DNA sequence: CCCTTTTCACCTAGGTGGTAAGAT
DNA sequence: ATCTTACCACCTAGGTGAAAAGGG
């Protein structure tokens, strides 16, 4: 399914006339598997508020990459508004053949954002290193799950995503 | 609404590595306005099978152009399968601001297909003439209408377009 | 009478969380 | 007990012809 919340980024400093590819990938934060705790007597798992280390991580998943579907595009195009990776989809299916990003559930990940300058020179491979920049925002780290583990995330999604309107019981402006 | 049947074209002879823009426009076939005849006593206008000249054409509409949404793309990409202009939309609304192709209803049009080579040279404007090719297929001429005037076209559409499944009463393979 | 416009039920296509059943 | 899977009603978004209403 789509990642939520969506990764969005505002870009500065590109050459407006040059072509760029924008992409994302995900790297494990640690080598651990996590689990939830339901406090004794609590009615819902949602009431738990912390993650416990549950052991060593599962074998790493294939390190796939997601190209922003507007790639390639001119710097001017990328910079003129916030770039949103809302088409990016996550799956836990190791056999996935839709090109989605494969993650292990109950593991922690760090999204990474990459910018590739499309070098028009014939020997552009030589400059691959300098034409490639990676940006990491640590505040975007998350635990992958197959079902929401936190009521406030569920409510945020219901309030902000038009496809979840069916579950709203109050004004989304609230 | 979308044009039906869709204009589709198979392309050969491009430079696989070069970029091309593909586009269409529509030119009037003549300076006439047409009308249908319903034979005396016929139940439906659909029973008529010919067009009568009904006078001089209405003032020409703005000559808009439709770029294939995949433009620009490499020659290899365009040539590897049939190119379909199924997103192209027609309207009779002179004030349209959706960028649709504006046509006069009950007038005859000739679709035209244009290929533009994206010249990477700095002074590419100089070569505009030679980088531009137009193809006309006379068998694609049609009369623009606001409602189908021919039962067989209606049936063809119902049989072939998934959005019209609600009107099917037999197997589309027939 | 002929054509155009508007509205509608009915589709395709696909993104939601809920829920019940399944798995470990 | 905890997590995963499959399915579902309910949405968004938009492409259909039919039919009714409108216009000249």
Automatic annotation (TrEMBL), chains A, B:
InterPro entries in the record: p53-like_TF_DNA-bd_sf, T-box_DNA-bd, T-box_sf, TF_T-box, TF_T-box_CS
Cellular component aspect of the GO annotation: chromatin; nucleus
Compartment(s) of residence: Nucleus
Matches recorded under Gene3D superfamilies: Transcription factor, T-box
Pfam families named in the record: T-box
Signal peptide location: none
Alphabetical UniProt keywords: Developmental protein, DNA-binding, Nucleus, Transcription, Transcription regulation
Residue span(s) of domain T-box: 1-169
SMART domains with a match to the protein in the record: TBOX (SM00425)
BP-aspect Gene Ontology terms: anatomical structure morphogenesis; cell fate specification; positive regulation of DNA-templated transcription
Protein name listed in UniProt: TBX1 factor
Organism: Ceuthmochares aereus
Gene: Tbx1
């Amino acid at each position: 399914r789509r990642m939520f919340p969506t990764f969005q980024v505002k870009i500065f400093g590109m050459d407006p006339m040059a072509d760029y590819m924008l992409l994302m990938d995900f790297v494990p934060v640690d080598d651990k598997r996590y689990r939830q705790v339901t406090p004794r007597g609590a009615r819902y798992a949602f009431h738990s508020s912390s993650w416990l280390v549950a052991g060593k991580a599962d074998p790493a998943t294939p390190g796939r990459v997601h190209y922003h579907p507007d790639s390639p595009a001119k710097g001017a195009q990328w910079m003129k508004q916030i770039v949103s990776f809302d088409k990016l989809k996550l799956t836990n299916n190791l056999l996935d053949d839709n090109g989605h990003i494969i993650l292990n559930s109950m593991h922690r990940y760090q999204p990474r954002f990459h910018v590739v300058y499309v070098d028009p020179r014939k020997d552009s491979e030589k400059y691959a290193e300098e034409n490639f920049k990676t940006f990491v925002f640590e505040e975007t780290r998350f635990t992958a799950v197959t079902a929401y583990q936190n009521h406030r995330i569920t409510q945020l999604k219901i309030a902000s995503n038009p496809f979840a309107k069916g579950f709203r019981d109050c004004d989304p402006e609230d």
